[in-house]
Specification:
Length: 664
């Protein structure tokens, strides 16, 4: 019986809250508003360059506050607002009414006798909010009055945080309730006005420190003044405007499509499983179901879709763990191979790995409800409208590191400029890879950017099992080794032809082929006269010209074995785009690439003085012969590449500090 009563009570409460929100939203949106903002207050109200303030208004104007928020938020969509609302039942109902408009509450107050009701904790939270770039709104005469008499809390907060107070007056066509504060209850299709006065500093370093009673009286006078001005402005308002809340989801079409497609997507995931593209034991993670417990304490969520992104955030994750010993890290990936790399390389006890759910509203909501991260960090070009909208709705700080916006992606997003802007303006900041990426992000609507810098230039050298390395070095002896790393379909044949030409001069040359996708190893070996495969623990004999190394996480081993290295996905005839050249360069390898390096243009430009571009198999063969015949030149090029690839080692530590600033 108590359970039934509780359920009915909860249902009634939900209906009441929904009805109040619907009416209040309708009344405020149909009111024609006029805003009179003091020029000195304007940058604080939109948090320009991180400036924050305490926004103060009388309790009677509390129902009108969303309209001021709807005016401010579109001018700075990353703006956050927190309102001090009492812990009592009425206060909690108000908080639930305004929460879907991204007006977040801080619970706490003092009663009329000065007894604390969470006031001290609320004071600390408000100060932290102000320091982290949020606006904090308070009603100095709340929660129980006396009406239009400033209590000490507002003065104490401004002094404690060292922030100014913006006095706000509001008036509109409204009925006045018979409450202690004579609260304004807005009526639809009327007129309204807001007047925001100049910032009031209650703790001025160069002036005589006033007593709290004097400061409270000064604030009270200012608030009464702007309330009178608001009423006068409303009565003679002419050039007014209608307002509406900022849209939560960047793309309603994408959001709806995800909802409609959700019943069919589990079958799609099962089909991918049959192709080896999903982990059968963890496929439910793609639907937002967790496979392990959430650890206690602050949690930062990193998303890196594939292998390259995972490797790039390794030093960043390590820096975050070092700088904050209580921090836990959740890393999500999209591909099975990237997940395997996380399991191999991210072995810290405070790191958890999960697969990223598909961009379906219910699945992403389930994921966020369970993991409740304090901040989210996306990598490179991972832009998903639904999950970003849900983060926005939860007021979850989101950042983008190593931000990449290729010319192709930029042209595609330009056709969806509105969606792109609504997505990108959700980010607290974007850390682009290069100046070119920075310009494209800025053109699409990014509001705050850090200095460009490529995390892939700051990654530690790829790891290696020293025992295995020594064993293979002894096994191969003085035999020259040509490594073709991360090759793609259509490329192995050209590498094999180049190797055959080079063997005419160096008959004992061993060519190691490491396919980007290890599952292609059997097919490649069959085309190379049944070459031995690393996945089968087979070693090349002296008669074997090729060795197919179709394993994951061992590139660090093969780079150290190689005499010279070719980076795949770059020759004409394959998909093209190149791969990260910093990995072999960091280990002092002599490196060559094909001409198709569009995915890593800036990286190859940075290393252009020590990387050779080959146009076809014959030119590649000539380069291999040159490297083998001139060890002095080969060593010089490797050392130069290593020097250029290690100039940005401070970047992970700097970005880690920026990320941890988002964690409260």
């Amino acid at each position: 019986m108590p359970t039934i009563k509780k359920s009915v009570s909860g249902l009634v409460r939900s209906v009441v809250i929904g009805s109040i929100r619907a009416y209040l939203g309708f009344a405020l949106r149909t009111t024609r508003w006029t805003f009179k903002i003091d020029p000195q207050a304007y940058p604080y109200l939109i948090s320009h360059e991180g400036q924050t303030a305490v926004v103060a208004f009388w309790h009677e104007a509390l129902p009108l506050a969303p309209a001021l928020w709807w005016w401010a938020e579109p001018q700075n969509p990353k703006l956050d607002l927190r309102v001090l609302i009492s812990r009592n039942r009425d206060g909690r109902m108000i908080a639930d009414v305004v929460a879907p408009w991204r007006i977040w509450s801080i619970a706490g107050s003092s009663d009329t006798r000065g007894k604390s009701k969470g006031g001290a904790a609320a004071m600390r939270r408000m100060r932290a909010s102000l320091q982290h770039g949020c606006l904090v709104a308070i009603t100095p005469d709340g929660p129980r009055g006396p009406r239009r008499q400033t209590q000490q809390g507002a003065v104490a907060l401004a002094q404690f945080a060292g922030k100014p107070v913006i006095p706000v007056g509001a008036s509109c066509s409204a009925a006045r309730l018979k409450s202690w504060d004579k609260m304004l209850f807005p009526l639809p299709f009327g007129r309204g006005s807001f007047v925001c006065g100049a910032p009031l500093w209650l703790k001025h370093p160069k002036k005589r420190q006033q007593q709290p009673e004097e400061l409270a009286k000064s604030l009270q006078t200012q608030l009464n003044s702007v309330m009178e001005q608001a009423e006068a402005t409303r009565l003679k308002a002419t050039g007014s405007c209608l307002l509406k809340p900022l849209r939560i989801y960047p793309s309603r079409i994408w959001h709806s499509l995800g909802t409609v497609m959700a019943p069919a997507l589990p079958f799609y995931l099962r089909w991918r499983q049959t192709k080896g593209k999903e982990n059968s034991q963890r496929i439910r993670e793609k639907m937002g179901f967790p496979s392990c417990r959430r650890p206690v304490g602050p949690l930062v969520w990193f998303h890196a879709a594939s292998v390259g992104e995972v490797l790039s955030i390794l030093p960043l994750v390590q820096a975050c763990l070092t700088q904050k010993p209580t921090l836990k890290i959740l890393i999500t990936t999209s591909t099975v191979t990237a997940g395997a790399i996380v399991e191999q390389r991210f072995t810290h006890e405070r790191i958890i790995h999960q697969f990223m759910p598909l961009d379906v509203p219910r699945w992403c909501q389930r994921f966020l409800d369970y993991w409740t991260p304090q901040a989210a960090v996306f990598t490179e070009s991972e832009l998903w409208p639904t999950v970003l909208g849900l983060c926005h709705a939860r007021n979850l700080s989101v950042a983008l590191v190593n931000g990449r916006m290729s010319a192709t992606s930029y042209n595609q997003w330009r056709r969806l400029r509105g969606v792109a802007r609504r997505m990108l303006e959700r980010f607290a900041w974007v850390a682009p890879r290069t100046e070119e990426d920075s310009e494209r992000f800025r053109a699409l609507g990014v509001l705050t950017q850090l200095a460009p810098g490529d995390l892939k230039t700051a990654a530690p050298p790829l790891p290696v099992d020293d025992q295995v390395l020594v064993q293979l070095q002894q096994y191969l002896g003085d035999r020259p080794v040509f490594l073709a790393a991360s090759t793609h379909v259509g490329e192995e044949e050209q590498v094999a032809q180049a190797a055959s030409l080079a063997r005419q001069t160096y008959p004992d040359l061993l060519t190691i082929i490491v396919p980007r996708h290890p599952e292609r190893g059997e097919e490649i070996a069959a085309r190379l006269q049944a070459a031995p495969r690393r996945a089968l623990n087979a070693l090349p004999t002296q008669q074997d010209a090729f060795w197919v190394c179709d394993t994951l996480g061992e590139l660090g081993l093969f780079y150290r074995l190689a005499t010279c290295v070719f980076i795949g996905n770059s020759l004409p005839g394959c998909h093209g785009g190149g791969h990260n050249p910093f990995e072999p360069a960091r280990l002092g390898c002599a490196v060559a690439t094909g001409p198709q390096v569009g995915n890593f243009t800036e990286a190859f430009q940075a290393l252009q003085s020590c990387i050779t571009v080959v146009q076809n198999d014959r030119v590649l063969a000539t380069w291999v012969e040159q490297m083998l015949s001139s060890p002095t030149e080969r060593i010089r090029m490797g050392q130069q590449a290593q020097k250029l690839a290690t100039v940005n080692d401070a970047l992970p530590h700097d970005l880690a500090a920026q990320i941890l600033a988002l964690v409260w």
